UniProtKB/TrEMBL annotation:
Location relative to the cell: Cytoplasm
Top-level taxon of origin: Bacteria
A Pfam family recorded for this sequence: ATP_bind_3
EC number annotated for this UniProt entry: 6.3.4.19
Protein name, as recorded: tRNA(Ile)-lysidine synthase
Record: residues binding ATP: S18, G19, G20, G21, D22, S23
Main location: cytoplasm
Domain observations: The N-terminal region contains the highly conserved SGGXDS motif, predicted to be a P-loop motif involved in ATP binding.
Catalytic activities: cytidine(34) in tRNA(Ile2) + L-lysine + ATP = lysidine(34) in tRNA(Ile2) + AMP + diphosphate + H(+)
Organism, as annotated: Azospirillum griseum
Molecular functions per Gene Ontology: ATP binding; tRNA(Ile)-lysidine synthase activity
């Protein structure tokens, strides 16, 4: 736990509990660790609804947690299931539901039970897909995921050691048959594990390779952060001004990483765009430095619009890619477009709709309030800003400092993308007693 980072004085942690031996062992270990610090632990299981017996298994795990005195909750993956890429979709749904549970429970930390064997499998899978240094670094022991920090305290321990922890505590676990289903790539890798180990690709060796790649990734991330500090200006309206000269002067790998991170932050996605597409964009921007600004007309990529502006480059959210409207009640915390935390004033008397301002909304805003034209946000950014609507009328655009006459103060909009611009940083939280 010391290796995965700092915690508040009374840690509040949510653990993703599948019912398998790994997650049960992690829950047992966290239960002791959290209790010693006067904190709280919540175990959350996600029922994917993919097998008839999954609901009963989730209930059984809940009963086991009740006997241990660990609060437990089951969330269900509703809706249609894809016919292909099922495991990836299930993992994505599970993470989304666990992040939602963290937000609802006020947990900053989401603990997952990935272990050394999982790390080795991840390395093999990514190697088979031609991943670069980032992919071969495997899973990080800690990192951000939206509004929470994901920690993997068991990443250095083997699957067998975690099962031994369960046995020592006299607590059982559930075996998921999909772990042996040859339909899935991870199951096929497990089936040939002994063969791979005989050829030198043992779990320990693969995990060590991932550790060394992670060390290289950390060094590259450090250099990328230094470049971004010189080349990028991140604005609270969710756009970035980039200096193409500083980008072109950097080593190509560092420049590409910096550009990729800018696109990921502004586009609101956890996953970076394809390398080839970023390389083309990077080449065009670097050419503009030597040939002239007119040689780079701008483009769209990864949900972003990239355009030259006053000797630099603006990276803004693409208007057509912005999230749709969402209703929010007074005082409710909403993560809109995976980029903004929006909290309507608690003094409001009715729900509002959070949606993009749009070109028409901006035009109406200017007609009624000409002063907003003086705001520094570029023209391509303004239509993408989160606005509060009521009965088809814009009542507030906090990013522009606009509030319609008669509307209560206190609406909050804060840029909070899925990933930070640099580093594996986690947002600092301030409380009355100081920094936690």
């Amino acid at each position: 736990m010391a290796r995965v980072g700092g915690f508040e004085r009374a840690p509040r942690i949510l653990v993703g509990l599948s019912g398998g031996g790994d997650s049960v062992a992690l829950t047992l270990l966290l239960r002791r660790w959290v209790a010693a610090r006067g904190g709280d632990l919540l175990a959350v299981a996600v029922d994917h609804g993919l097998r008839p017996e999954s609901a009963a298994e989730a209930a059984a795990v809940g009963a086991a947690m009740a006997r241990l005195g660990v609060p437990h909750r089951v969330m269900r993956w509703e809706g249609d299931k894809p016919s292909s890429g099922l495991q990836a979709a299930a993992r994505s749904a599970r993470r989304r539901l666990l992040e939602l549970a963290c937000a609802e429970a006020g947990c900053l930390h989401l603990a997952l039970a990935h272990n050394r064997d999982d790390q080795a499998e991840t390395l093999l899978l990514r190697l088979s897909r031609g991943s670069g240094i980032d992919g071969l670094a495997g899973m990080a022991a800690s990192g951000t995921a939206g509004l929470v920090r994901v920690i993997r305290p068991c990443l250095e321990f083997s699957h067998e050691r975690l099962l031994a922890t369960c046995r020592a505590a006299g607590v059982g676990w559930v075996e998921d048959p999909s772990n042996r289903n040859p339909r899935f790539a991870r199951a096929r890798l497990r089936a040939v594990g002994d063969l791979l180990a005989g050829e030198g690709l043992s779990v320990d060796r693969l995990a060590d390779t991932a550790r060394r790649a992670a060390r290289a990734r950390a060094a590259l991330d450090h250099a990328t952060a230094a470049l971004l500090a010189r080349a990028a200006s991140l604005h609270p309206e969710g756009w970035i001004r980039l200096d193409p000269v500083a980008l072109a002067d950097a080593p190509e790998e560092i420049g590409l990483r910096a550009l990729t991170r800018c696109l990921t932050v502004v586009g609101g996605d956890e996953h970076p765009p394809r390398d080839a597409a970023v390389e083309r964009l990077y080449g065009g921007m670097c050419d503009s430095v030597t040939v002239g600004r007119a040689s780079f007309p701008g483009c769209t990529l990864a949900g972003c619009r990239i355009a030259p502006r006053r000797g630099g480059v603006v990276i803004a959210r693409e208007a057509t890619a912005v999230a749709g409207p969402q209703q929010a009640t007074p005082g409710e915390r909403l993560w809109w477009d995976r980029r903004f935390i929006v909290i309507p004033s608690a003094d409001r008397t009715a729900p509002v709709t959070v949606a993009a301002l749009g070109a028409a909304g901006w035009a109406r805003l200017v007609a009624d309030n000409p002063d907003v034209r003086g705001h520094d946000a570029p023209a391509l950014v303004r239509p993408t800003l989160p606005a509060l609507w009521s009965d088809g009328v814009v009542v507030a655009v906090p990013s522009l400092g606009f509030r319609r006459a008669g509307e209560p103060p206190g609406d909050v909009v804060r840029f909070s993308p899925a990933l930070p611009l640099a580093g594996p940083a986690f947002p600092v939280v301030s409380a009355r007693g100081g920094i936690i």
